[in-house]
Write a structure and sequence with these properties.
Chain lengths: 338, 338
């Protein structure tokens, strides 16, 4: 496939219908020309999206499609909606029917990406607690998508990317007190390798520069404040370098996110959740994209939650959804051009 | 003393003479009018400052003074230098003579502030490892200044302040694995009280709003990822509120530093070093000020180190030194006006 051939469209899952997902999909379609977005289609929700658009004061036209291949021709004049999944629009009112719709939309959108009918998958925000009630056993959408595309959970790596910064946390949803014992040479080496390869294939960076954070203040100051840098992180960096990866560190995290430091790397590898998420959200709050690296398919997501409290009120910012769509489109073009 | 009476000057310690401290003092004096800086004097270093200014291409005039009270009248035409302490200017070449000069300058500047002859103290960056070699037993300047002004180390609280953010870490220089056990109700309550009072007396905020971070990702998600929020942090917040302090939280740290969230508080109370320092340096790298709260004297410092590698090369940014001088002057005016 050539980069300038008619692109396959992106599949977009609705997220929880009571959250801000539907209204942001509608807004992204309305702004498709000014934002130069690649063609995409929603998986289900034709009525729901129309209602969400109306509540937000948007002029949205939807058109149902039976095949993803129909989307590109329709996209200029209507938001294509795949299939007949749908539900009522009750913003802020999460319930079981909404959770079932969110899950069905996610399952179908993922399947279309895995089958190659969609160029990639952009997932709307779900409510994990609501999905758990109906038996969804994965910690989050990332793990679901990894399983659906045949990748072990530990090889699917979450990257957060905004206009100012790309960052990857090595550990995510665990107590801070558990972080030191979860960090291993193997974890850092293997995940950093996934990151380096994905930056080459999907982000067009021939020689990606990985800046790897220390765990402790000032990266431990040569062992005076913690030994994880010496015993775990530095050996992993040495092994990455031996394999030809441009990895540096362990860097003191507090200065690694300054404007000048950010010019010296393509991705910051953080040791724990807040070490990655604090700078990303401080710098790029309404434009952060959550990308899953290491998958055979492309998957991005806006880096925010359902925001039930503001759903339907017209104030949710579409920046991250637009950025997630644009990034997925760019990643798909790069893979197609290889 | 009235706020518009002739101000007592600020005392400025040189920091390590091989670091970027001297050239930044010189630059701050050169920019005194455009930056509207309060009168200040350096403690020692008349020859050294002249050499540092020359290397940086600055036109600096110095004049020795024997009493701080002489500084205000001289400041418009020359940088006042108190006393005869001095040394050779060898940027990047830290040595014992330099450490002794840095310590003597710090001791004298602190004494002048404690005696009330200076309106406040602004400290240049020191090299802790060099000072330790000559017997300096304090972990840093903050603890030295606390001891010299008769305050217990645990009641001298470091705040980092920039144009975008004020933040106070509850624990500082310890391994990340030690943070959970160091956090106590008493620590958070007592230090937050110091912060609240100092924002009232020194920063002119009648009802300071304290946003208190959780320790764990998403502030622990109701105990699913760590229990420190439930067992330690929330009770401390409740006690602060019972004492009339506008304290909120525990907040998930990752969203607390976004632009919108930052408008909702006057200071973010962080649980550990990088939780405070990462957002501060990401947002305000060349303008961060380190302020010691809870002291009878005023003490600020630029929030950067000696930067030996770039000393004498004319590239170090004077923004943080200028901000530290301006903040100390403003704090002194507020105390004087009470």
């Amino acid at each position: 496939m050539f980069a300038d051939a008619p692109a396959r469209p992106l599949a977009v899952s609705l997220g929880d219908p009571a959250g801000i997902g539907p209204e942001l999909i509608a807004e992204a379609w309305v702004r498709r020309n000014q934002e130069r977005l690649p063609p995409f289609f929603a998986v289900g929700g034709a009525e729901l999206l129309a209602a969400a658009a109306k509540a937000r004061g948007l002029e949205l036209t939807t058109r149902r499609i039976a095949e993803p291949a129909e989307a590109a021709g329709i996209f200029a004049t209507a938001l294509p909606v795949f299939g007949f999944l749908d539900g009522d629009y009750r913003p802020g009112m999460a319930d079981e029917a909404g959770a079932r719709l969110a899950l069905a939309s996610l399952e179908t959108a993922t399947a279309l990406a895995v089958q190659g009918e969609a160029a990639g998958l952009v997932t709307g925000p779900i409510a994990k607690a609501e999905l758990a009630k109906i038996g969804f056993a994965h910690p989050g959408q990332t793990e679901f998508v990894a399983a659906a595309s045949g990748v072990a959970a530990q090889d699917a790596v979450m990257m957060l990317a905004g206009p100012s910064l790309r960052t990857v946390p090595m550990t995510v949803h665990c107590a801070l007190s558990e972080v030191p014992q979860r960090l291993t040479f193997e974890l850092i080496f293997r995940r950093s390798m996934v990151v380096a390869r994905a930056l080459q294939t999907d982000f067009g960076i021939a020689h990606p520069r990985l800046a790897i954070c220390g765990l402790n203040p000032h990266a431990g100051e040569a062992g005076r404040m913690g030994r994880e840098e010496i015993e775990i992180i530095a050996p992993a960096i040495a092994a990455l370098r031996a394999d030809g990866i441009d990895a540096t560190g362990p860097h003191p995290a507090d200065s690694l996110f300054s404007p000048r430091a950010r010019e010296t790397y393509d991705v910051a590898i953080a040791m724990y959740h807040d070490q990655a998420l604090v700078p990303l959200k401080a710098l790029d709050f309404d434009a952060g994209v959550n990308v899953t690296l290491g998958l055979p398919i492309i998957r991005t997501s806006p880096d925010h939650g359902t925001a039930f409290a503001i759903a339907g009120k017209g104030v949710a910012d579409a920046g991250a959804t637009i950025a997630a769509l644009r990034m997925a489109g760019e990643m798909a073009s790069r893979r197609a051009a290889r």
